[in-house]
Write a structure and sequence with these properties.
867 residues, mainly beta, six-stranded antiparallel sheet, 1 helix
Length: 867
């Protein structure tokens, strides 16, 4: 059964507010009004609010921007419940307190989109018209700036009141403090404004950089494409993905400006509709267009839409196809009213696709075959425009809209936004998040704590010192086979041709070694106690001054080495031979893989395990070495263990095996590339790397890519520490950064009777975490998701309101806010609805960690929690 009760429920709620004398001003927000007066049907995505109306941003599921939680505390300590995740018998639920309604005492009434809360109740709020407003600890309000060129600011956060960032439209990132914000640098000459773009003429006018378009083909300031369908022909447009008997066609029944438009429906009936008793759908696709590589790019079109208002049915959306990737950039949920009152103009920021060759895709889908007697959708005046923007010293920002920002330290912050944009601040500059290098073949990795080094073919080396992986020069083109470290500060690397590198931080360079044969593994006890092994039975030891070489009996090719706490050296290699010894010589303990080898070795809790070709696993659990059944014939490249009953082995074709104390079982991996190495900074996290740049992480429940990306709009971001950052957005997209990079974490399906499960696709607006195994995400349709350290799952609630912001004071004291003044509180046992006395859309909520909690929204609303 379709769920159409939300409008009725809101009407009842509004009646109750009026009857109780709690009505403030305006109307409840229902996906487009924002609670503001003067709301019109005109949609102006990612532009400043005007006339008191609440503007809409691309990608919203029914509402505009995703609220950001704030919080003066940069790094959140673990505040989760017991290991079981459930309160004990003596648990007392946290009382919510009461929100005191209020507004910012300013000359204008702003729509506040984001808020940061500092010590003593000092807050900074941002919103439309580029406003940054501050309330001091005495309750006095002031406007710090109307940021020039930043028509809309969506979020604000910082590690403390002296290090804040506000983000918004066109990749705006404004630095500031609780007392001053966004100071611009004035230019004195055109030279300072030169951005090196041949498409622009750069000027300095009254201290401000300005540009004039140069007018070149394919440059900013031109129109890459425009279509009004007045010719009566569909071409050069095409139609694809047709379901049912109806399609897109050019008609003359309605038009925005001329006589014709593009229509989906059946024009042969009167009045026209799309009711054929079955699902009908089709996608109208524009010809390929090359977008300018600089400036801003905007899509404009006029639409007449008569269809169901329910976002789950009669869907109408705009997508951009770049190569094989299709990204949704707009949907009908952003219209102020459905059916529309005639044609309404829509604009969408496409700056994220600058420089790309794209196709525009307009898709209508009835989803089902009922309630389809509406007229359908008319599309007209599709226009791509671009503008040039100033560069140089006084540069105004251009690029994808940013919706969320969060700082975990003065030198580590994250901003997220349109089309999967993720930016990272390193204390000096903002850069795009790193992604996987698919040309890399990683052979080994080693580290300590948050420090890590990877080595691979062709002299490739990448290091992390607590942040994303960075490629560094190795000084060699030899294939590097292994890396070891005792402290994460000094690394030893070995490879083909007797190559040995020594690395400190990001500086790696070759050093003289004892042999010219290929070296295959290294074990580092200390800088003065380093062992290497290689082909032809070579075993060598470095004592801090010189190398000593020992030859293993029979001179087999040696592939792995381990040094025990007692100083005994274990070596494995060809024919599955296992040897023990030291500088005085080595003794063979036997061969365990005839015709094959054992190429990786790991020791934990007195258990020694080795793996190799043909899926061979050989383990010594105290009674001698013995072969164990792996259940695979794939070559195993690496082994690692957290304990005697918690071992991992990985290898060719994406093979991953786990020992649970009883048997080796296969675990699904999202790739088929060879996995060549394993390493862990500490349980339960385990990394695997291999060919094709593969880098995966195990967090306790599943393997996921570490350095991945998404094209989904990202709305909210939150981090407890550089190694635990979450971002959420469209289509229930959830990205997680464990320190090395970003990976998408799937959401568990809702169980269904057929066992297939229902995908969760709601827009998520905000995220907050109490601990590494306790996080919450909220969004459209009252969606609340919870992370338990292994899986994101749906939380059952009774509300379908859009939730925009979330903030927690502790694991059992969490707030979520959203449309029509709604606030939900989690008391440690359950979520409960709390009256706020306001019907304004609440875009964000934040706190200082000491109990001062503030929510902000439309109508200049500022709610303060009292307890």
């Amino acid at each position: 059964m379709r769920r159409r009760g939300l409008e009725m429920a809101r009407a009842a709620a509004l009646f109750a507010l009026v009857a109780g004398g709690a009505l403030v001003a305006g109307c409840p927000d229902d996906g487009g009004g924002g609670g503001d007066t003067g709301t019109t049907d005109t949609v102006a995505p990612d532009t400043a609010d005007t006339g008191g109306s609440d503007t809409l941003d691309p990608g919203d599921a029914g509402d505009d921007t995703g609220g950001e939680d704030g919080g003066g505390d940069a790094v959140v300590e673990d505040t989760g419940p017991s290991d079981t995740g459930e309160p004990g018998d003596g648990f007392v639920p946290t009382e919510p307190g009461v929100f005191v309604p209020g507004t910012a005492n300013l000359a204008e009434e702003y729509v506040f989109k984001g808020v940061w809360t500092g010590d003593g109740g000092h807050i900074v709020a941002v919103g439309n018209d580029g406003v940054v407003a501050s309330r001091d600890d005495a309750g006095r309000w002031s406007v710090l700036t109307h940021a020039e060129g930043a028509q809309l600011l969506n979020a604000v956060h910082g590690a403390d009141g002296d290090h804040l960032f506000a983000v918004g439209l066109n990749r705006t990132i404004l630095p500031g403090t609780r007392d001053s914000f966004g100071e611009s640098t004035a230019c004195t000459s055109a030279t300072q404004c030169n951005d090196g773009d041949s498409c622009t003429i750069d000027l300095c006018t009254n201290g401000v950089c300005e540009v004039q378009p140069a007018g070149g083909v394919g440059c900013c300031g031109t129109s890459p494409g425009a279509w009004d369908f007045e010719s009566g022909a569909l071409a050069p447009w095409t139609v694809t993905e047709v379901t049912g008997p109806l399609t897109w066609q050019v008609v003359d029944r309605r038009a925005s400006g001329g006589a014709r438009s593009l229509y989906f429906g059946d024009p042969s009936v009167e009045p026209p509709n799309y009711d054929r008793g079955v699902q009908v759908a089709a996608t109208a696709v524009s010809p390929s267009v090359k977008l300018p590589s600089t400036g801003t790019v905007t899509l404009g079109f006029s639409v007449f839409l008569a269809a169901e208002a329910d976002s789950s049915f009669d869907t109408f959306k705009v997508e951009v196809k770049r190569g094989s990737t299709v990204s949704e950039v707009w949907s009908k949920a952003q219209l102020g009213m459905i059916p529309t009152s005639g044609f309404v103009p829509v604009t969408v920021d496409l700056s994220a696709f600058r420089g790309a060759t794209v196709n525009l895709r307009f898709r209508f889908d009835s989803v089902d075959g009922t309630v389809n007697a509406f007229e359908g959708v008319y599309l007209d005046d599709v226009v791509l425009t671009s503008t040039c923007t100033a560069g140089g010293t006084a540069n105004t920002q251009t690029g994808p809209t940013l919706w969320g920002v969060y700082a975990v330290a003065d030198d580590r912050a994250y901003a997220v936004g349109q089309a999967g944009t993720i930016l990272e601040w390193d204390g000096t500059k903002w850069t795009g998040a790193s992604s996987s290098d698919t040309t890399a073949v990683w052979n080994d990795m080693a580290g300590s704590g948050q420090r890590l080094a990877l080595v691979g073919d062709a002299g490739r080396v990448a290091v992390s010192t607590g942040g994303p992986l960075q490629s560094v020069s190795s000084g060699t083109t030899a294939d590097l086979q292994a890396v070891g470290t005792a402290d994460g500060l000094v690394y030893w690397v070995v490879g083909d041709g007797g190559t040995i590198l020594r690395g400190e931080g990001a500086s790696f360079s070759p050093i003289a070694g004892p042999t010219g044969v290929n070296l295959t593994d290294v074990a580092v006890v200390a800088s003065s106690d380093v062992w290497v092994v290689g082909e032809a039975g070579v075993v060598a030891h470095f004592d801090g001054a010189s190398w000593t070489t020992v030859t293993a009996p029979g001179s087999p090719n040696l592939l792995a080495v381990w040094v025990g706490a007692d100083g005994v050296v274990t070596v494995t290699g060809a024919e599955g031979e296992v040897l023990e010894g030291g500088l005085a010589g080595f003794t063979s303990l036997g061969t365990f893989n005839s015709g094959g080898d054992l190429r990786s070795l790991f020791v934990v809790d007195g258990v020694r395990a080795a793996v190799g070709t043909t899926g061979r696993i050989v383990v010594d659990r105290g009674a001698g070495w013995a072969v164990e059944d792996s259940g695979t014939s794939q070559t195993l490249e690496a082994v690692w263990g957290f304990g005697a009953d918690d071992l991992w082995a990985v290898g060719r074709s994406g093979t991953a095996l786990h020992w649970d104390g009883a048997a080796w079982t296969r675990v699904e991996v999202p790739i088929t590339a060879s996995l060549n190495t394993l390493w862990s900074p500490g349980a339960p996290t385990l990394y695997a790397a291999g060919s094709g740049g593969a880098l995966l992480a195990w967090t306790g429940a599943q393997w996921t890519p570490v350095a991945g990306s998404t094209t989904a709009n990202l709305r909210g971001v939150f981090g407890r520490a550089p190694g635990d950052v979450w971002a959420v957005g469209a289509g229930a997209t959830i990205m997680h950064n464990t320190g090395l990079g970003w990976a998408r974490i799937p959401v568990e399906k809702i169980p269904t009777e057929d066992g297939e499960g229902e995908e969760i696709t709601d827009e998520l607006h905000a995220v907050w975490a109490a601990a590494v195994d306790d996080a919450w995400a909220v969004g459209a349709n009252g969606r609340i998701l919870h992370w338990d350290g292994a899986t994101w799952t749906k939380v059952d609630t009774d509300w379908e309101i859009t939730l925009r912001g979330i903030y927690g004071l502790a694991w059992d004291d969490i707030w979520a806010v959203g449309t029509a003044g709604h606030a939900l509180h989690f008391n440690g046992r359950e979520w409960e609805l709390v009256e706020t006395g306001s019907i304004a859309t609440l875009h964000a909520i934040s706190g200082d960690g000491d109990g001062n909690i503030v929510a902000v929204g439309t109508l200049g609303t500022v709610l303060t929690l009292e307890r």
